[in-house]
UniProtKB/TrEMBL annotation:
Its cofactor is Mg(2+). Keywords: ATP-binding, Cytoplasm, Kinase, Nucleotide-binding, Nucleus, Pyrimidine biosynthesis, Transferase. Belongs to the adenylate kinase family. UMP-CMP kinase subfamily. This is UMP-CMP kinase. Monomer. Gene3D superfamilies: P-loop containing nucleotide triphosphate hydrolases. It catalyses: CMP + ATP = CDP + ADP; UMP + ATP = UDP + ADP; dCMP + ATP = dCDP + ADP. The lineage of its organism: Eukaryota, Viridiplantae, Streptophyta, Embryophyta, Tracheophyta. Consists of three domains, a large central CORE domain and two small peripheral domains, NMPbind and LID, which undergo movements during catalysis. The LID domain closes over the site of phosphoryl transfer upon ATP binding. Assembling and dissambling the active center during each catalytic cycle provides an effective means to prevent ATP hydrolysis. It comes from Rhynchospora tenuis. Its EC number is 2.7.4.14.
Amino acid sequence: MDSKAMNGKPSNKRIKVVFVLGGPGSGKGTQCAKIVEHFGFTHFSAGDLLRAETKSGSEYGTMIQNLMKEGKLVDSSIIVRLIQKAMLESENDKFLIDGFPRNEENRIAFEKIVNIEPEFLLFLDCPESELEKRLLSRNQGREDDNIETIKKRFKVFMESTLPVVSYYEQRGKVRKVNAAKPPEEVFEDIKAIFSSIQGNDISYRQIAIEAKPEHSPSLIKCCLQFLCCLRMHERK
Ligand SMILES: Nc1ncnc2c1ncn2[C@@H]1O[C@H](COP(=O)(O)OP(=O)(O)O)[C@@H](O)[C@H]1O
Ligand SMILES: Nc1ccn([C@@H]2O[C@H](COP(=O)(O)OP(=O)(O)O)[C@@H](O)[C@H]2O)c(=O)n1
Ligand SMILES: [Mg+2]
């Protein structure tokens, strides 16, 4: 996935994208925060980008708000442009895109406009009864967290989002975790997935995060020197 373009122009940044999907309330936002902290990704929630757009006075604001209130999906070109803009404004090269692609149209629009193949799709699997319970006690003042809209969102998830999961499953790109456990336990499984893809891509930031007071300064120095050698070797 080298030198793919994010805006139609060539780029030598090696950009990594991981899509994060799961039913409404499966813990996408909760787990993404943990992945950011441990693995240095930048997190974009499609829903949060849309909510911010409704508050920005954008020409599409009212239309987006009405669709979200109904649990319906917003036009792909709008959400993909918002994601692309957020990625272009970021200095990072590793992105978690949560709540996306929600349907085939989202997936195809991302492929056309952003043109980056995801590393994999992280799928948080959780039964509907548990999702409903979590959404009804989320308490974030969301207009769509009411039983009527929740039922509509479940329907959209089953009918439009699951086919996208199947698309990536057929390509061996789905990493599924059981999300019906306490958040820390879910993250243990996610950690194993991200650790295994990390490989040589371990970052300086990662070493800083993993370094504990009980680790001797010489051990940390040794790790950093090893990383420098690795990077020099990669550039050859
Ligand atoms: N593993 C979990 N077990 C119980 N509650 C959870 C878990 N993960 C998240 N929650 C809670 O469920 C609600 C939905 O989580 P959130 O991360 O917003 O999900 P999503 O982004 O998938 O809709 C929040 O109130 C959150 O605190
Ligand atoms: N790709 C996306 C993502 C969200 N949305 C809209 O945003 C709403 C909330 O999405 P969200 O990802 O914040 O919802 P949760 O799954 O976090 O509960 C959805 O019900 C859709 O109305 C969309 O239209 N297209
Ligand atoms: Mg969310």
